[in-house]
Amino acid sequence: MKQLQHIFDSADLLYSLADITLVLDRLAAELTEQFSQANPVLLCVMNGSVVVTGNLLPKLNFPLELDYIHASRYGDKTVGSELNWLHKPATKLVNRTVILVEDIFDEGVTMLALRKYCQQAGAKSVSCVTLVNKLHNNKVGERPEFIGLTVPDRYVFGFGMDYKGYWRNAPGIYAVKEENL
Fold it and tell me: Which residues are catalytic?
């Protein structure tokens, strides 16, 4: 536990809760403008986007259905591997407008698979909103249509994103010091 506390105590705060709230307000306005008449299905991409989704939902003042989808490449690791499907949505996606809510757009492998799944399930359209876009050149697939913040190519945690399964509850977005990886 001391090591986990050290990770938090030594991390660099990139965005405070106030910064994140402003960005979520902007994203909610953009989503409302585009989807308020579309009767969308909003899919929370577990586990990372549970905090993002929970904070975004009350800002979306239009009818929508909520479900979740869970596919992970990380587990409790800091490096991604094969995609592991844990839950597919119970809501039928046929002829529906789908909005995937992600915590972070890192390499894009998971998002690409989630988009493909939704399209194969018959979705009319699939859009993605992500709180964080990590800046690097190792991306695959389409960029999210709605991006909140950008972070450098460092390991980040907080506001739903984890460090080895911990610190999803950190009050902001933090970057781990290189020597702690």
Answer: 106
